[in-house]
Amino acid sequence: MNQLLYTLLAAFVAVVLVAVLPGCGARPTYAFDELDSMPAQDELVEFPLGQYSIPIPLVRSLEIDHSPKRNRLVFSFELHALTTRDGKSQLSDSWERHEGKLRDRVIQVCRNAKLEDLEEPELATLKSHLVDAVHAELGPKSVRKLLVSEIITQKL
Predict the structure, then answer these.
(1) Distance between CA 95 and CA 77 in Å, rounded?
(2) Can you tell me the distance from the alpha carbon of 38 to that of 1, in angstroms, rounded to the nearest whole number?
């Protein structure tokens, strides 16, 4: 009985060692392993697109007397564009030429935003509309991403 138990235990240990040992020392190779050790393709830099403080009229649902309840809030933020190092000079030139138009577009997007868009935690909907406005004015190649920071919402 002991001999049979020792034989089964030895066979079990042998199977475990055969299954485990080849994987312990060798590192598996995957197709994307090289990407982990490569430097970033494009290093992005920030370019300021101004500070904004925009009064936004809000229309709430209709009351019993059928007149809309209006209110306002002031939406303040800083807007930055992320671009490549090579594209920064081009973006700077475009900003100098189109600053007024771009500011008007940003204000228009914010004033047309729904209350739900302004209350989103990450402002995803508003940011997507702002990206469209910036791309329309400065070009899609010059701006890779927009950053909205220093956000303050105050009710009036």
Answers:
(1) 18
(2) 59
Percent of the chain's residues with pLDDT above 90: 19
**d(C-alpha 73, C-alpha 32), whole Å:** 48
pLDDT reported for residue 140: 78
Alpha helices in the chain (DSSP H): 2-25, 33-37, 87-111, 115-119, 124-138
Helix, strand, coil in percent for the chain, rounding step 5: 45, 30, 20
Write the DSSP symbol of residue 64. Answer: T
pLDDT tens column, 94-123: 889 989 999 999 999 999 888 888 888 888
- Burial classification of residue 18, based on how many CB atoms lie within 10 Å of its CB (0-12 exposed, 13-18 middle, 19 or more buried): exposed
> In terms of Cα–Cα distance, which of 81, 78, 77, 58 is closest to 68?
58
Question: Could you identify the residue written with the tokens 């060692």?
Answer: 17
pLDDT digits (tens, 9 = 90+) for 55-108: 988 766 555 555 555 578 898 999 999 888 888 888 888 889 989 999 999 999
How is the chain split into domains, by residue range?
Answer: 2-37, 44-155
Structure token digits, residue 42: 């494009």
